[in-house]
């Protein structure tokens, strides 16, 4: 038995339910994908905000340390304590920003990434503590025996600290760019999903209308024409379609009634 004959045996009401359910199914699938996409986009946006704040905080730390180092050099040249103001500010800004970075890292869901970044941050904070101690010796007004030698001696450690900060910042910047690209991909996928859902809904509705016209409207018109011919004492021109649905049953009953009336007229 072919698939078409099986479909023709299905009652007309069931066929209507099937065809009318196709657009609803498309809407349901779209809603499920929309829920999944929204959940995925929320996680990406949280990650995006975290990377953005980390980059911003690391840039502030880098800038504060550079300003502090420049202020020390200015102080060595002028012996003006006003030059040490950036160094004094760095002693407050840098720890606060690094604490904020640690808080952001602790919100990373994946443990391996969280542990790896916390280890890098611990190393940076250890070097920062050394640099802040040097800044504190100058800004506190205490006597430094050979300040120029101290600055020169501390320069390699300071450069290494800046390199570590730059490496961590660049890594977060790359992740930030990656998250932006992922959000764009999700947005494009959502647009494509909306287009496909509309397309499937329209196509399924067009198929439903086609079958409704072919299976219902045309056959009802043929049956109406047969009734008119029977009224005019003429023979029906349309044979029963052979479908097993409700209209097919009506066609067969009409054919039997027509044959019965034809026999009555002959007799």
Quick structural overview:
One of its GO terms (cellular component) is membrane. With 267 residues, this protein is an all-alpha fold.
The percentage of residues in β strands lies in under 5%
Structural class: mainly alpha
CATH top level class name of the domain at 31-189: Mainly Alpha
Cα end-to-end separation: 41 Å
Helix content: over 70%
**Care to count the β-strands?**
0
Report the mean per-residue pLDDT as an integer: 81
H/E element sequence? HHHHHH
**CATH-assigned fold name of the domain at 31-189:** Four Helix Bundle (Hemerythrin (Met), subunit A)
CATH architecture of the domain at 31-189: Up-down Bundle
Number of H/I helices: 6
Uncertain segments are none
Radius of gyration over all CA atoms, rounded = 41 Å
Largest sheet: none
Characterization of the model:
The structure is a single chain. Helices cover 86% and strands 0% of the residues. The chain is mainly α. The protein has a domain at 31-189: Four Helix Bundle (Hemerythrin (Met), subunit A). The protein is rod-shaped. The mean pLDDT is 81. Residues 214-266 form the HAMP domain.
Describe the secondary structure blueprint for this structure.
Blueprint: H1 3-9, H2 12-78, H3 85-105, H4 111-139, H5 147-231, H6 246-266
Keyphrases for this structure?
267 residues, mainly alpha, Four Helix Bundle (Hemerythrin (Met), subunit A)
């Amino acid at each position: 038995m072919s698939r078409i004959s099986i479909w023709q045996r299905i009652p007309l009401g069931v066929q209507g339910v099937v065809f009318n359910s196709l657009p609803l199914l498309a809407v349901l699938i779209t809603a499920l994908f929309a829920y999944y996409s929204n959940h995925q986009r929320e996680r990406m946006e949280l990650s995006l905000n975290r990377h953005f704040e980390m980059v911003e905080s690391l840039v502030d730390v880098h800038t504060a340390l550079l300003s502090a180092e420049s202020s020390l050099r200015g102080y060595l040249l002028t012996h003006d304590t006003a030059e040490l103001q950036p160094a004094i500010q760095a002693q407050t800004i840098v720890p606060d920003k690094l604490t904020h970075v640690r808080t952001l890292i602790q919100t990373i869901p994946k443990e391996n990434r969280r542990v790896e970044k916390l280890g890098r941050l611990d190393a940076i904070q250890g070097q920062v503590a050394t640099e802040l101690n040097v800044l504190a010796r100058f800004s506190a007004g205490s006597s430094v025996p050979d300040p120029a030698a101290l600055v020169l001696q501390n320069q390699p450690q300071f450069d290494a600290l800046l390199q570590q900060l730059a490496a961590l910042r660049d890594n977060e910047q790359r992740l930030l760019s990656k998250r932006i690209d992922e959000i764009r991909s999700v947005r494009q996928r959502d647009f494509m999903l909306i287009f496909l859902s509309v397309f499937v809904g329209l196509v399924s509705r067009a198929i439903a209308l086609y079958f409704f016209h072919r299976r219902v409207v045309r056959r009802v018109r043929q049956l109406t024409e047969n009734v008119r011919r029977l009224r005019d004492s003429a023979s029906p021109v349309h044979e029963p379609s052979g479908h097993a649905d409700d209209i097919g049953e009506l066609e067969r009953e009409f054919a039997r009634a027509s044959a019965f009336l034809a026999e009555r007229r002959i007799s």
